Amino acid sequence: SSDTGTSNQGSEGGNYKVYLITMDQMDQHWVTVDGGAKKAAEELGNVDYTWLAPDVKDDAKQIESINNAIAGGADAILLAANGPTAVTSALREAEAEGVKIVYVDSPADFPAVQTLATDNEAAGKIAGIEMLEALKGKSVTSGKIGIVNVNASTASTVAREKGFRSAFEGTVFEILETQYGDGDAARSKDIAANYITEGVVGIFGGNEGSTVGTGNAIKEAGGEVIGVGFDKSDTILQLIKEGHLLATMSQNPDVMGYEGVKTAVKVLEGNTIDKDYVDTGVSVIKKDSL
Amino acid sequence: MDNYIVELENVCKKFPGVKALDHVSFKLKSGEVLALLGENGAGKSTLMKILSGVYTRDQGIMKIFGEAIDDMNPVKAQELGIAIIHQELNMCDHLTVAQNIFLGREVTKKGVLSEKEMNDEGGKILKGLNMNIDPETIVGDLSVSKQQMVEIAKALSTKAKILIMDEPTSALTSKEIGDLFTIIKRLKNEGHGIVYISHRLEELQYIVDRVMILRDGQYITSMDYKDTSLREIISYMVGREITEKFPRIDKNVKEKILEVKNLNAGKMVRDINFSLYEGEIVGIAGLMGAGRTETTRALFGANPMESGEIIIDGVEVKINKPIDAIKSGIVLVPEDRKKDGLCTKLSIRDNIALPNLDIIANKLGIVNRKKEEEMTTSSVENLDIRLANTEIDADSLSGGNQQKVVVGKWLVRNSRVVIFDEPTRGIDVASKVEIYNLMNELKSQGIGVLFVSSEMPEILGISDRILVMADGRITKELDIKEATQDIILEYATKFDRKIKEGMEA
Amino acid sequence: MENKKIPSKLRRLFSKRGMGQVVTVTIGLLVLIIVFGILNPNFFSNRNISNLLRQIAPIILIGIGQSYVLITGNIDLSIGSVVGMSCMISATLMTKGMNPWLAVGVTYISALAIGLLNGQLISKAKLPAFIATLGTMTIARGIAQIVNNNYNTDSIGPGAEGFRNFFYYGKTFGLYNTIWIALALWMVFNFLLSRTRTGRHIYAVGSNIHAAHLSGVSISSTITKAYLVSSVCSATVGLVMTAISGMGTMDAGTTYELYAVAASVIGGVSTLGGQGILLGTIIGASIWGVLQNGLQFAGAPVAIRNIVIGIIVIISVLLDIVVRANKNKAKKVKVKA
Amino acid sequence: MENKKIPSKLRRLFSKRGMGQVVTVTIGLLVLIIVFGILNPNFFSNRNISNLLRQIAPIILIGIGQSYVLITGNIDLSIGSVVGMSCMISATLMTKGMNPWLAVGVTYISALAIGLLNGQLISKAKLPAFIATLGTMTIARGIAQIVNNNYNTDSIGPGAEGFRNFFYYGKTFGLYNTIWIALALWMVFNFLLSRTRTGRHIYAVGSNIHAAHLSGVSISSTITKAYLVSSVCSATVGLVMTAISGMGTMDAGTTYELYAVAASVIGGVSTLGGQGILLGTIIGASIWGVLQNGLQFAGAPVAIRNIVIGIIVIISVLLDIVVRANKNKAKKVKVKA
Ligand SMILES: Nc1ncnc2c1ncn2[C@@H]1O[C@H](COP(=O)(O)OP(=O)(O)OP(=O)(O)O)[C@@H](O)[C@H]1O
Ligand SMILES: Nc1ncnc2c1ncn2[C@@H]1O[C@H](COP(=O)(O)OP(=O)(O)OP(=O)(O)O)[C@@H](O)[C@H]1O
Ligand SMILES: [Mg+2]
Ligand SMILES: [Mg+2]
């Protein structure tokens, strides 16, 4: 079944062609965006909706996907930009073809109809503040803190890290060199375990895989270390429930997809869009909020 | 007539473009040594590979010890008591001597290898062959002739009743050949049946009972050795009389072309001094491992030279790489054509053009295809290389024709010195004569020919002058008039004496 | 003998090892194109064709480089990292204000340094190619990361618009420049490989390194030249990447070396050396590109795409083996008749 | 001859090709350990040592598999994907409620199917190993993705705690189970390689496939066995991955095949076949692991780590070549004297 790939609704004629282009096809996060978009398309009934995704996170490949969408006759593109700069020229080409652009999750440096996103930097800062408060609660006022991130080239996770670091400005906590685990849960676990050996008091995970790795390392070490992370998955929720992770920053990817398609169709139908930025919000999920 | 241990009837085998065997029948008795003879590409190896299960026949009947065998494979052949020493070396370089001998038939106890038993047993077999080799030596560290002896030991160790030897002596020293013959006689007396393939017809008199001759994949005849003569055998092999085995033309020596002074390159090339004149053939004789190949390689720049002078036409030349040698007019026809001579995956045209691209390409390096075509065609015609067209792969040619391509690629350029290293190894009589004629042709053109060979008769038959090497040195220079087998052998073994002297001292 | 009538040029072309494979996969490519055309009416649109060609161009480029190296009997695992390194070096220099064309020059020089290192490690120090280029693969990726201090670069800015148009966004005679660049390099390197001494030496080294040595071929310079060609191709793709994104991305080109092997091998280049032609590489790259593009349009999830591509790589080489075996059989029959 | 006094067992051990390299890199490993120990007092802490060993264990495992295949003269590029596939299959089955140990069984069977396919494609259909396993690499990754419908799995749940402890979190005699698993498999496969007929045949096939065939060694079953060993090792690592994360991740194991090559080669296994011992693979894996761990502690950015590791791969093989050349020189001198 190709239900993760594409779904075509409605009759042939007069349908709007809307493409969702994500960073890759791997994370549950994107699958949820797709789910929201699909739902909106079904409700609207006049949308040919397709999810195009590169096989890996890669600027050039994302641009290829954009070009493919244009070539495929897109009326609108919902885009989660891998990096803000990289895709701008491709988007300029899209705009020239009259394609409407809506950003979901991560915007690019190019004007669009609307951006539905989490402010990653702000969300990162919230994560930092959560950790700081938990540490204060245990009367820990100094120590080392580790960061497990995906890589240095994905803008959204880099922004989260930046926000996280900014929460510690003015404190005496020492934030260690960021280590990258490519979002691989096992590699991230090794990195987090090494941090724990090094005697850190807290670890921040930048995405789903990093957070799972962090949680598992803390679980094993016995829970002294405060772990906060990003994204909502079953495993992460489990780790929070068991008390190994303090919190995870959950975005609302389904909202992004759902509202994104609605916005696109609205503008295609000739309506005006009043808000160019919609903060889809971030919810802090903790044990007591489960 | 019931004691045939092998009976093959009407065996056929086709390869792409070649009918290697065409209704060939073959019989072997126990207690006899049968020489299987024929020109290159006659189908000898193919027939034996069918018998030993390496190839499957297209057609024909096979009976071993009277029992019909439908499909044969190497394992089954071994079980039936057939052992074969292949024409090419088949050793695992990384394994030890004993590990190679017992490969595929390892001795185990409860599934665990019994190394000690295999080493002991291997040691015994080697001793039986009069070989002083530690069974735990890594085979890759042995010389080629020792590896060949290990190969023989391996075949003997299977205690097979049917033993096939495909050119076993082409890489052996004369002492080793002697040891091998002793063993062959013993095995024969013990009732083994032995098939012996060789292009060195002089060997036959020592061991052979019967000969069988193939030509172009067809059975020609078979007879008892005592009822025939070499002359007759050769005419059956070739299909015509070969009048002169070693055609000789008069030499017409003029200028000195090449002078080598105090050449040193590794332990096998020490203080080499000699000269070569226009229009002469100088043979380099010696035992296996005397350093002849290394001398030619050093001269050609294929191995690094430590010291010495090489003077061509009175001018010293620096040779660091083969290209330097080629540019100064020295070319080498290497001894191992498959390994060093031919790019087997490329066409005949590519192979002939390869060292001559300086001639057929312009200053920018662009190849002139017309010149290339002409060069290839003339080379093929001059040497009478038999092929469908020049675009076929080199490895589809028979051994003799491959050798001609290796020679041919050098003859299209105006070289001053042509070095042949064992040009007739593994080549049939008729082709050998063609190669001798080729050398004579060069000689008459005023080219200097250096000619390395392990076969005494041809060294004596073709050379105008002979250099004898032992232990990396030239131990004697002989004019052809004063040269005999005994003298050459005396100087070729000088190195054994040196060891003795060393040990006594 | 019956071949005598066939003109020698054609005979030469068709007797080239790998030519059979080229014919087979060209048919395969046509079938793929027809299937995708039926599945998706947009496939033959002008826009998709030129878009598709532009996507295939970088694969052709890295395919050329890998083919050169494979024909010498070696392999270049550093291709993807050199793409990334070139992308980062060019972009970093441009963001620092260097003239884009000067930056292009520096990029080619740095890439050539990696090619030189590969060639020397393999031909002089006798390292197996797999190891040497596995090492330089890691090193070049490290350089890509370190050159802008472990970050992707900022935008290379409006001053580099000319550069970006030259390498990617511009069109000449109705075709995107990237396509012209790939074609131009293909023509140069195809000529070099098929018509010059260097080309002959590359085949000879891959076919039998000893025989080539004894024929006066300089092994080290031949192998090194092949790696330099590979570096030039990779650097060009790296520059295309910079032009595409208008910035430097550290992990640009990841796993491209494997795409390059796939394109070469599908097109009939043997990983064992001595065999293949660059025409095949174009076809191989096209199959790869058409599959990626067509399957994405057909809405196939990445998983299916992976499985299909894996199967096609295996089948295309299997085909080659089967076709060759049949050709031999056919020959036999002829001889018999 | 002067060697006669050394007991034959020792002599045999040291005459093994590749042993020299093992000695050299063992010294290298000790140096690394001392350097990192000085740089960071935590390095020798109990916790770090047992942690480090556990991080090395999976690399040892994939290293064993790759070594087996390399010794036969082939390569296995599918290792990383089989790790990912095994991780996803086991986790998916567990989330669907299958008994964890049954899921483990199914996982091994699926991985063995890939190994069998590799072995058959290479030994029967005569595909070059690089191509065949490039194909199965893509296919296995596709399966990893498709098995749970392109999602990473949910948590394998508390019912799988026993499984997770067995493969990763539990300790036996003070050492983590992962380490014991790696050691146990190492002992079994080392025994198989060095003391049984199969092992001997693996070396023979890698050393000279033709000679092995003529000696009655079954090429296809030998090569297939090597790939099956590799699959068992990869599947085990995949299960460890599932145990670590408590979920299935589709891209688990990416590029592990190259780590495995690096560990093998650093430890003296030749990519040309016929040569190497599994003791070397342990040392090679340890160097790799110590570097990753030590450089993190030293706060080195990833870029530096990549460069250091690339250089070490190249140098360790260079060393082997230089040491062997010198040994030969020494031999020559002996003969001369
Ligand atoms: N594997 C093969 N593939 C194709 N052709 C082959 C093969 N083996 C042998 N031939 C061809 O079959 C014919 C017989 O070859 P064979 O090796 O049996 O000759 P031979 O009598 O042993 O010659 P030589 O004295 O040179 O060893 C030759 O034309 C050869 O080119
Ligand atoms: N590449 C090599 N590495 C190590 N030893 C070698 C190498 N090549 C040759 N040898 C050794 O050097 C010695 C000289 O061998 P070479 O074959 O050059 O002598 P030769 O007189 O030409 O003998 P042949 O009659 O076999 O041609 C032999 O002992 C051989 O084992
Ligand atoms: Mg023969
Ligand atoms: Mg010789």
UniProtKB/TrEMBL annotation, chain B:
Assigned keywords, A-Z: ATP-binding, Cell membrane, Membrane, Nucleotide-binding, Repeat, Sugar transport, Translocase, Transport
One Pfam family, short name: ABC_tran
UniProt superkingdom: Bacteria
Keyword Secreted on entry: no
Main location: membrane
Signal peptide as annotated in the record: none
Gene Ontology CC: one annotated term: plasma membrane
PROSITE patterns, sorted: ABC_TRANSPORTER_1, ABC_TRANSPORTER_2
Membrane topology type: Peripheral membrane protein
InterPro entries xrefs: AAA+_ATPase, ABC_carbohydrate_import_ATPase, ABC_transporter-like_ATP-bd, ABC_transporter-like_CS, P-loop_NTPase
Subcellular localization: Cell membrane
GO molecular function, one term: ATP hydrolysis activity
Entry protein name: Monosaccharide ABC transporter ATP-binding protein, CUT2 family
Domain spans labelled ABC transporter: 6-241, 253-496
From TrEMBL, chains C, D:
Keyword entries, A-Z: Cell membrane, Membrane, Transmembrane, Transmembrane helix
GO MF terms, alphabetically ordered: transmembrane transporter activity
Domain of life: Bacteria
Keyword S-adenosyl-L-methionine annotated: no
Compartment(s) of residence: Cell membrane
Chain segments annotated as transmembrane: 21-40, 52-70, 100-117, 167-189, 226-246, 258-291, 303-323
Protein's name according to its UniProt entry: Monosaccharide ABC transporter membrane protein, CUT2 family
Organism of provenance: Anaerovirgula multivorans
